Amino acid sequence: MSSIKTTATEDHGLEAGQDNIRVLGLDIHNPVFFVSAVIIVGFVIFTLIFRSSVGPALGNLRVWLTSTFDWLFIIAGNLFVLFCLAVVLSPMGRVRIGGADAVPEFGYAGWFSMLFAAGMGIGLMFFGVLEPMYHFNNPPLGIAGPVADGVLSAGAVEAAREAAMAATIYHWGLHPWAIYAVLGLSLALAAYNKGMPLSVRSAFYPIFGERVRGWIGHVIDIMAVFATLFGLATSLGFGAEQALAGLNFLYGVPVTDTMKVLLIAGITAIALGSVVAGLDAGVKRLSEINMVLAVLLVAFVFALGPTGEIVAGFFSNTWSYVTHLPALSNPFGRTDDEFLHGWTTFYWAWWISWSPFVGMFIARISRGRTVREFIVCVLLIPTVVSIFWMTAFGGTALSQFLNDGYQGVQETVVAYTPELSLFRLLQPLPLAGLTSLIGIVLVIVFFVTSSDSGSLVIDTITAGGKVDAPVAQRVFWATFEGLVAIALLLGGGLAALQASAIATGFPFALLLLLMMVATWKTLQSETALINRARTR
């Protein structure tokens, strides 16, 4: 049988770097690079000058967006999951990214390590212990909390535990990975099946045609740059807070603004080295090291924590997630506004702001996979890993509190010091000093892989889809990722970081909804090509 060619041959008029200009040895897209760079540099300067005003303003913006558009974020997240499942179950799932003859560039181990380190990373370290315990104390969906005036109410414990684990998995399961899968698949098909530049605007060609070469495309790419940079800055800020808290906990390093700045600067410098090394020597190697360390840490907690409870909890928590999913994903008639606005809406905006970065990065490393294989691996496998991670860490924290009477993690909830929760969990376990140090290293390496992966993506967008732009451009973006994180931390702390993620995630949510339509059109055309080739 002759090979089936699924790569479209139509002349779309788009080539990587076709509108680029070369200045001072740089190869940059005009005007995407200049507009993005000027606004971001201006934002950093403005935030540092007006620190006292920026924090409250961003806080007010966050409250308005989460309370006004919570329904949009929740419905959009549901649609992304349904879209992915529909594609997997349809004949379009057999389309191969890059055409029928394409072969994967990376093996499963390297591919999965890179996509998982890029997609979750710091967030799992920061929230893996705290979030289940927090939701246990403050259950969603109107469920009565088990803790009242410090006294446990036995009748409410099990319901609160189930709701807490279901809510946590909801935030780290199918929905965030569906967001990444939608954008990643759309870009991969545009780049490798249609021969267009690896840039966000290319995904919208089925809708806008050659108008994506003009200001429609410029605005889309600029929005993608902003979403990526501020989504990354949020994660880098969380990582810096947690790493510094761990250093203080272990070695007494003072938690000051100066130390935060020095820590971000130091880790950004490490990221610059990885950026210069490139994808294979830098990002891939660090991601694999990170995966090994993460496996060692979760295996340690699994072995020395309540092993039997973790095994049983994996299945019971998965079932709790499934049974609570309809209520958790319903945006209407809710009374748990603190959970809906403070957690779910923030998370969805954060994942959406990360989607250009993670989606493009996944697209770049996924050539040769079938669409069905792509979605299953990007959607289901990380969800299973997230369930196990949250069960191991969150379940251990709950067991320490309920069965052992240990107050360490509970105190981080009461005082809301989330950056300390991981280290307080490890404190009563053997080798606490060593495992806490591994936790700090993990946070730092996740920080580095996120930064250099993000730099590669932003550089590709601002270089008109070129993946081999000069290294100096990646260095520029890696540097400003660190500077934006510093500016936001100094200008308003974690609240300012969260507000910036929501502000950039909101407009990009609308683009992602439109992108689903474009992706469906592309998949239909690719499936038609396969069918015609098979009937010849």
From TrEMBL:
Q: Which domain of life is it from?
A: Bacteria
Q: Does the keyword rRNA-binding apply?
A: no
What does UniProt give as the signal peptide span? none
- A Pfam family that this protein carries is BCCT
One GO cellular component this record assigns the protein to is: plasma membrane
Q: What is its main location?
A: membrane
Subcellular location per UniProt equals: Cell membrane
Q: Where does the sequence pass through the membrane? A: 32-51, 71-89, 109-130, 174-193, 214-238, 258-279, 291-315, 345-362, 374-393, 429-448, 475-495, 501-520
Q: How does it sit in the membrane?
A: Multi-pass membrane protein
Q: Which UniProt keywords apply?
A: Cell membrane, Membrane, Plasmid, Transmembrane, Transmembrane helix, Transport
Segments forming a coiled coil: none
A GO molecular function term, named singly, is:
transmembrane transporter activity
| Family stated for the protein in its record | Belongs to the BCCT transporter (TC 2.A.15) family.
Q: Report the protein name in the record.
A: BCCT family betaine/carnitine transporter
